[in-house]
Each structure stands twice: as structure tokens, then as C-alpha cells.
Amino acid sequence: MDRRKAPPPIPAKPPREWYIEEAPPLPQKPDGRRTSRGSGPLGPRPVPRRVPPRRKPVGELARIPTTSSYAPSVVDSPYKPYEPKESGVPYPLDQAFERMPSPDRSDRIERSPDTPRSSQLSFPDPDSYSIWTDDEVSSPTRMPALDSWKSGLSFKDLPEELVPAPAHTLPDLPGLHIHQSGAISVPLDLPQLPPMGAIRPPFDVEQLTVAELEKCTAPWALSGVAQWIDYLVSAIDAEFSLTSVTAALAKLVVFRCPAINWVVADALARQAMESLRQQGFCTAGPDDALQLDHSLRPTGVLTALCGDGCYSPKPGPGCYAPRCIRDKPLEPEILDELPRRMRSQVSVSRGRPDLEMDWAGFWGIKPDEVDATALKLQYAIHELIMTEVAYVRDLNVYVDVYGELENHPSVMADQALFCRQVFARIRDIISVNSVLSARLQGRQHQQGPFVGGIGDLVVQWVQEAGEAYNAYASDYLASDVLLRRETAASPALREWMAERGRDPRLVGVPHSFYFSRVLPRLLRYKLLLGAVLKYTPESSTEHGILLEAQKKVDELSAQCDAKVATAQRGIDVDNLRAHIVFKSADVTADLKLGDRRRKLIKRGELLRRGGFKVDWITSHVLLLDNFLVLSKTREGQNGKAFYVTKLPIPMDLLVLESADLDGEVKFGSKLTLTRGVPVAKPTSGTDGQVTYVEQPKDVLYPLQITHIGRAGGEYFLYAKTSIERERWRDAIVDAKRAHSSSAFARNSEPFRLKLLSDQFRYVEGDAPKLAVPTPNTVLHRCIGDADPAFAVARSRVNSVEAVGNEFLAGLEYGVYRGSGNHAAWFRVLDLRHVQSIRVVEEMNLLLVLADKALLWYDLGSVLNAKPGDKNVPLGRRLNRKKRVYHFTIAYLRDRLVVVYVQQELAASVLKVVEPVRSTSRTMNNIPCVMSFREVDRVHISGDVIGVTPFHFSMIVHNSSNGFQYLSLDVKVAQRFPAQSLGLGKPLAIYRISANALVACYELGCLVVTPTGEIAAHTPITPFVCVAQSVAYQAPYLVAVSPELVEVRKMEAGTNNKAPLVQVITGKDIRLLGTVEGQIRLALAHPRVPGIQLVVAVVGNEFVVIDSTSSISGL
Question: Positions of the region Disordered (predicted)?
Fold first, then answer.
């Protein structure tokens, strides 16, 4: 007979008003802040602050103890901050040894590995140290001061009476060594710094000094240049690249020849480096790193750098030699100082020579007297100069004629804005191009009639004109739209523009010609430079400079095109905001068109079937960067309007299901599936005659998209050609990728995914159909580009639990164990239809719900099982004959219990059992479970599908009655909350604060008080999806449906709905468990059919919630 005493029954509490009890409050500090649990009565222990090491100042003295028995101290850090007690007070001798190591480290204290730390040694009494006075500082017997930081300190510097005794008389300190020189050294256990070469900074050309530039005595010789480069690499501790050395060589050229143009200097530097590279002296390694071959001595001469710097002296503003490469171009102010005769030849913009005159007519030269190639070259250069003069003249005329609008009475709305965007920008263009025009004319005056080159002038101009042209390109389209709109609306403006158009300076040219004169000029530069480059010898320095000029002009043109494209997208979005009309409130959505980040990616006409599948509807599809809008085109009062009849699809909820379906033939109102191209076949009863079937003309190519939200639907959009369908597919995929990349870059995703396993496959026929994959989403970033490993099982994953670094997975036919993604999984328990598993490590217990039976196992035996073991871990059944549909582990009144639900006829039986500990323990001193003892049972009408335990009570999830409050004292389930909300099946309830709980249903959630009352002024938050399960990881609520996971931020005490902050899409998504806040999911692989992924939802502690995202209002 078992004489063990049964535990006392749970005492019944007196009747009182029921409520959800709170957990014991955390202790509070005096300032009101709560301490963390498990940190002790005084809260978490403060972390000591690390004090950075301090170098000893030069000349700082040491303090010597008065006693002759000196025992050096051993410390962890070789440097300590100097804290004098009085003015001029030095520090102890033991600190002097620690603070002042010698360069050769021959006299430092060394310690063997078994030497005790400083915390284990005794230090001398601070009172035993004497303090030096000012008279003793100059004493010859004192310790000599250090001349520099690198100076060392040894016993040779000490008086004889202070030299330590031999080793056998010293204290017995393990690891203490005395060298033959008399120096005591103990090695300090400190981390070693990485080598300096690994953390060297990149070479900065701007830090080259005059002394370093003067080291190159022969810059005209490649051998001298090579020696100088070798000197820089050896003398400067930095990372050198081929680009930085080229820039340094260009700086050397300018330093040696100050009058040279920097563009020419850069071209000479590139020419010299190319010659050195061809001879093998220098090469570019990985990441453009410089690699030198010191055994080679390159040869060659830079003829441009030979001599004293010029062909003739410079008494005037310009050089007497027109072909001098070291002469800078004439500036505009220098042009004004030229004699009148020269200025009349140069200032063609003032109307003296004819701008349409060619080069030969301009200079009075017969074309037959000049070589054909040279003639074409001069024609091209002359055309560039003359068109530049005409370009500046036209801009000046435009500002002079139409610029009076700035001072004219208002004839248009936003007149000041228009003048600022147009005339102010054009004046900046005139300023920079006048400089180029003057320089070109100056070069023409210096070297004419045969101009040697203009590439350096163009390169220098591009560097100066970039800001002005980019600013003009940013405002050009907005000014054009404003001018067109106001011209159509304001008769006064039209009359004023017509009056200005009759000005004789315009010579009959309309306003639009001058208004759009700037941006086409950039394209003209490219053509003109190409013509000059075509007839320039490739061996000349000018050819390389022209290539650089053409490259710079292309870069500036691309920048302006990007600015115009950005402005065009903004204008398109503004036009949409004025022309979009929603059919009703049911299809209304905040498209956030006022956000400057909005982009209209693609728009066009696609066909779709009507509601009754008997007619065709032409949909005008608008693909924004945040929404996809299906609309119909209508004529409105302000022109064309877009009538939105379907709910716009947010980019987070848009799924491209397929884009490769077979084409369908349109015959009136019927669709016929096309089975390829018709084949011509001979008819029966004829002499081989062939009947040709006419190929259908109206073939449509479907594009299947889905709004995966609860209020969405599935749409088939038909394109007229397969190429058009491919363009729409690429546009949608790119839009989704850009949307995900933008959210990742802004760090606005509260959760990331971590791959745990990809080694489980679906049973044949159970795998879901995959959508078109979209790169760079949360799921794709999780799996990367790796292919799935070899599958270990074909079964549906139902539950996953973690035990340290091990994982236990519950499948349809067993429990598998593994260590994550890269380890092999194997079966440890052979069971059928494993629904759920739970681990209780403190009791060495594993609970498994398999095939409606609740089993418990010894956790250690399961974890120690090996593949192929014959000794299978044995489990015991917790329930008898009745089926178990749900179980959970809880701590009721500080006692570990297991709560499980059985079905009996029309009622559910809720049983509470407690594990009984065994007298034996595991090797880790963990108690084992011998059996289970029934604590209580409660009969509840209806179908109980879940239980949420609290400290003294629990919440029952009843499929017919919603949430019900249950106390084991009263054993009467009461509705919680009392109102019927109509939100579907109850899923879970969580505590979000001391006085608030969130009740989650299939269709939404709401905040309630611990007494079951709905919080005042708190609306119901509807879910985007139909949730099948929920989880809570403070402060985020995660709702899981088969196609999406929506994350909402729960904030107690607010009167607003819980905002939607993240959406994760996929196929066949299932919640596997939420133990201790660790959320795990199973879903289909997005790229490989038939593969299941097990992922963990990992919180992002640095998240920045984006309140302007497309899902913020859902």
C-alpha cells in the first residue's frame, strides 16, 4: 500500500469578484524604474567602466619607496592614469615599471602562464612611499627622467642601495624572471593588436607636403618618377592604389610647372603611369591596390616637362608661344585687357564677324592649301566655338526679352516662383557658359588659325558647370507645366507673351525655342567633341584629353537626364492625384500620392473579364511604387479621369501568381484555350489536298495577380502580346523588389527571418503552387542563393521545439532531431500524426501530442538517441481512452501543471495534472518525472480549442462562446468579454500591460481590461487576413494565415487601431510554436517546389517604424 501522503488540496477561496490576476510586480528603484527579474534585490550589477590607457608624459618622475625591500607588483594593464596627490608628486616605482616599457622590452617584467593575477598579490602600503620635494628633484641620486616615451627603465638606472636582491632572496612569485642585465620582467596577459598593415588608411593626395614633392629631382624622366613613387610607398604608412598614385603624379606636375593647366597635368600623369604599367614597374592588384616591381628600372622621357617650363618669358598677360602646353587658358577678365584689334577678332558674339561663316572664310584661308584631315579638324573646332558663342547669345536674348516678367505686374499665378525657377537658373547657365565661350575664343586668338586642342577647356568647364545644369534640370519640367497651365488659363499672360514675341531681337523665333535651349546643348557637345576626336591623332596627348572631356560631358548629361526623369515622375504622380476618382468608399485607399518618394513605374491598357464573365473590360493599370491600381478611363471636366472600381492593391499584399500561362483566343465574348499553332492536315476523301486552318488573330496572354488580403481577390489581366506581358511581369517584380529593398534600407522591418532547416519535403500532391519569385524580400534574404539540402523526410512539419542547440520537429510520422540547417536530421520517435510537442527542461520532460494521444518521454533519453539505435525511448500515455485535442504547460499558483482538453459528447473536459518527481536524478542533477497526478477537472459546454493560463486562473477558447474566464475555485466558465463581437473563432489572449489584455480572433483583435470590459474609446483592429493562429512578442502581435504574416504594434492606452507595420508573404505558412517569445514558422520554399522551410522570427532591436508606408493605414 502506498503510504505516501498526498499533497494538500488547493484551498477554496471565498467568493469574490473574478478578474485576471497580474503577475507579481517588479521591485522599483527610488526613481520609479523597475529592475529586471533575476538580478537580485538591488537590481542589475553596474558594469565597470573601462579607462583608456594614458601615456606617460615626457620627463615625468617616479616615486621610490623608502624601504629597501622592494617587491614589484604584477597588474593586468601595463598603463595606468597618473593621479598625483599634490603638485609635482610622482608615482610609485612599481607603476613606473608598468607605465614605461623599454623599446627592446628587455627590462620588462615577464610572467609565466601560471603566475597569479594582480588581484591575487599583495601590494605595498601606500603610506610606505615617500614624496620627493623640490630639493630632492635635482639630487644626483634620484631616478633619471625619461627623455621620450620610447625610453626604457632598468635597474642600471637605480642607485646601488635600491637594486633588488638576487632571485633566491626575492619573494616567491611564480613566473618572476630576472635577466642577466638585472631587469625584472613579467609577461602581461594582454590581447595583441593586429598588424599595422591590416588597418592602414588609404593614401591621401592632399596630405603631400612640399618636402615630399621636392624629393623627385627629375620629373621629366620615368626613372625619376619611379624612384619617387618607390619613396612614397616606403616613407608613407598608407594603402596606395593606382588611382591615388596617378593623382599624386598629377600634383607633382602642377608643382613643377605652376603655369600648366590641371587637365593637361592629369593627362600627362595618366600617360606616365600607363608607360610605367606597360614596362611592368607597377600593376593594379585587387581593389586597385598598387603593386611595384623594385627590380625594374623603367626608361622614358616626358617631353612636356623638359626645359625650364616655357618657351619664352611672360611679360604680358599671355605667353608669347601659342603652342606652349604649360600656358593656362585666358580668363574672361584677361580678354577685356587685350588690345582693341585683338578683341574685335575674338568677340564674335558682338556681331562683328558672321557666326555662320566657316573656318576658312573666318580666317581668309583657301581650303585647297590645307591638308584634308587638318582642315576637317579645324572645321570641327571652329563649329564648336561658334555654336558656343551663338548659344550664349541666345540665352542672353531670352533673359533680356522675357526676363522683364520679374518686374511686370502679376499676369500669372506663382509668378515669382516661375521667374525664380526659369530666369535665375538660366542666369547661372549664362555665367558658366560665358566663361567657356571666353576661354574658347581666347584659345582661338592664341593659336589661330590652327587651334591645337580644346579638350582641356571642356573638361575644366564641366567641373564648374555641373551644379548649374543639375539645378536647371530639376526645375525645368515643373516650370514648363506651370507655364503651359497658366498660359491656357490666363488671357493676360497670353497677351503679354505675344507682345514680347514681336521683339526684333528674337528674329521671329518662338518662345519655346529659347525656353528649351539648355538641355539639348549637352547632347550637342557630345556630337561636336566626337567630330573633333575623329580627326585628332590617337598618339597625341590631346586625344586622351578629348576622350576625358567626352566622358565628363556624358556623365553630366546622364545626371541631368536623371533629374528630369525624377521630376517627370513627380509630375505624373501630381497629375494622377488630380484625375483619380474612387467609385465608392469600399474601394477607397490612401495612395499617399503627396509623398515625394512616390513613383509611377508603369501604366498601360490591359483587358480583364467582367463580373459575369460575358464581357471584356479595358482596365487602365497604374503601377506605383506602393500600389497597383485597376481603373477605367473616363472623360471628366478636367480632361481624362481614372475611375477606380477595384480596391487598390498595396505592394506588400500584391502577389504575382503566374506569368507563363498559355494564350487564350478572344472570340467575341468567349475565351478558347490555345493549344499551340494550328497544324495543316490533309482532309479525307481528297487527293492529298490540304485544308489550312486560319490562325486566330486575337490571342491574349494572361497575367495572374492576387490581392492576398481578406478584402482582395484574384485577377486575370490579359495583354495583347507576349512581349507586353513580359514587360508587365518584369515591372511588377522590380517594383516589389525595390519596395522590399527600400524597407530594408530604412530599417523599418520589426522582424527578420532566420533559416533553421530546409530538409523537409511535402508529400506528393500536397505542395502548394508557387508564385513568381521576387528577390530581396524578407524571405528571400533569409534563404539566400543556396540550394536546399538533401531531404530527410517527406512530411508536413507541425511543431518545432528548441533544446539548447538542438531542435525537435514534430512531423506526420515521427519526431525528428537535428542541430539546424546544416546538420542531418534523423527520427528519434516513431509516431503517427504528431500535432504538437513541448519541452520542460527543468523537469527533463518531453510532451508529445500524437494521433490524439498525449504522451510523455524522458527528455534525456530522446536527446541521447543516435541514428540506428535499437533501444527506442519509451513513452507513457497521459490520457486513457478519450482523445486529446489540445494541451499546454502552465504555472498555476507557482506549481508546474499540464492542462489538456478532452471531448466527451457535446462537452469538453479540461483536466489539470501535475508531474510527480522521481527520487532519481539525471547526471546534471535535474529531477525526473515518475508519474502525473490529477489536480482538477472541469466540464465546459462547447468545443474548447485552446487554453491561455494565468497565475490563478485561465482563459478558455471556446469555438461557440468565444473567450471564457475560468477559475479552478469556482469552476464556472463566464464569457470574457461579455459582448458578442462577431470576429470569428477565438485564437489567443495576451497581456500587453498591467491593466490591458489583447483578445485575438480570426478577423481582428481588441484591447480589454483584466475584468473583461472593453477598453474605453479603443476600436476593434481588423486583420488584413483571416488569421489561423497568432503569437505575441512585445510589443508586436503576429497574425499568421496560409499566405501572409501580418505584424501589428500593440500600444496600450491609445485610442487608435493597432498599426500594421510589416507583412511577410509566402505559401502554406504555419505557426509552429511561441515558447518563451521565440516564434517559429513553417512555409513553402519560394523558388524550389516541394520543399518546406523552418524559420525563426528574429526581432530587430534597431527598427525605425515608417508611418508613411503603404500598409500603415490598413
Answer: 1-141
Neighbours of 820 (CB within 10 A): 16
What is the CATH classification number for the domain harbouring 301? 1.10.10
* Cα distance between residue 480 and residue 488, in whole Å: 12
Cell 498526498 belongs to which residue? 6
For residues 182 and 212, state if they share a domain.
Answer: no
Cell of 347: 568677340
* Mean local confidence (pLDDT), 559-581: 88
Residue 627 β-bridge partners? 650
Whether residue 34 lies inside any domain: the answer is no
pLDDT in tens, 341-359: 333 343 333 333 455 678 8
- From CA 646, how far away is CA 630, in angstroms rounded? 6
Residue 498 confidence (pLDDT) above 70: yes
Lowest model confidence (mean pLDDT) among 67-71, 537-541, 830-834, 1000-1004: 67-71
Question: Are 756 and 736 members of one domain?
Answer: no
Residues 6 or more apart whose Cβ sits within 8 Å of residue 23: 951
The β-bridge partners of 666 are 671
With beta carbons less than 8 A apart as the criterion, state whether 173 and 146 touch: no
Alpha-carbon distance 1043 to 1026, whole Å? 10
Quick one: pLDDT band at residue 146, thresholds 50, 70, 90? very low
CATH code of 620's domain: 2.30.29.30
Cβ atoms 178, 167 nearer than 8 A: yes
Domain C-terminal end among 506, 534, 565: 565
Q: Are 659 and 703 in contact (CB under 8 A)?
A: yes
Does residue 733 share a domain with residue 793? Answer: no
Helix pair angle (518-534, 455-489), 10° resolution: 150
* 23 in a structural domain: no
Placement of cell 503679354 in the chain: 496
CATH number at residue 343: 1.20.900.10
- Domain end among 133, 162, 190: 190
Other CB atoms within a 10 A radius of the CB of residue 274 amount to 12
User: Based on the domain organization, do 590 and 551 belong to the same domain?
Assistant: no
| Stretch among 21-30, 546-555, 1075-1084 having the lowest mean pLDDT | 21-30
DSSP assignment string, 607-673 = EEE-TTSSSEEEEEEEEESSEEEEEEEEEETTEEEEEE-S--EEGGGEEEEES-PPPEEEETTEEEE
CB-based contacts of 821, cutoff 8 Å, min separation 6:
755, 756, 757, 758, 759, 789
In a domain? residue 154 = yes
Q: What does pTM read for this prediction?
A: 0.68
**159 vs 973, higher pLDDT:** 973
511 and 593 in a single domain? The answer is no
Dihedral sign computed on CA atoms, order 559, 564, 566, 567? positive
> Does residue 347 sit in the same domain as residue 463?
yes
Res. 331 pLDDT band, cuts 50 70 90:
low
pLDDT of 149 strictly over 60: no
Strands (E), 795-894: 799-803, 806-811, 814-818, 826-829, 834-840, 845-850, 853-858, 876-877, 884-892
* Whether residue 538 sits in one domain with residue 661: no
CATH number for the domain including 885? 2.130.10.10
E strand segments, 104-196: 177-178, 184-185
Residue 849, domain member (yes or no): yes
- Full domain range(s) for residue 184: 53-190
Among 768, 771, 707, smallest CA distance to 733 is for 771
User: Per the structure block, which three cell numbers stand in for 399?
Assistant: 533673359
Rounded Cα distance, 522 and 1038, in Å: 54
- The set of cell numbers assigned to 862 is 530522446
List the beta bridge partners of residue 986: 1001
Q: Are 443 and 324 in contact (CB under 8 A)?
A: no
Q: Are 606 and 621 in contact (CB under 8 A)?
A: yes
Pick from 927, 926, 909: which is nearest to 918 by CA?
927
